[in-house]
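Tokens for chain A. Residues wanted.
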């Protein structure tokens, strides 16, 4: 059976830390930035951990999950 390919859209959006956590960039930093406060922009600019319910599916798309 051939190897499973990594989902190219997923690999652009998520990264796996050394401890195995999956991180993503938060939404809301693309436009209308002059309306948002500096405090809000600093908070949105940090990476966020994925919700536990989605970890299995994302790891499968990244090719990191084994049965």
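Reply:
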């Amino acid at each position: 059976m051939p190897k499973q390919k990594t989902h190219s859209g997923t690999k652009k959006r998520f990264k796996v830390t050394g401890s195995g956590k999956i991180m993503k960039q938060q939404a809301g930093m693309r436009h209308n930035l002059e309306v948002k406060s500096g405090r809000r922009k600093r908070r949105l600019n940090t990476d966020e951990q994925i919700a536990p319910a989605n970890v299995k599916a994302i790891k499968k798309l990244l090719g990191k999950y084994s049965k």
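The CA atoms of residues 11 and 62 lie 6 Å apart. The helical segments are 8-13, 38-44, 55-62.
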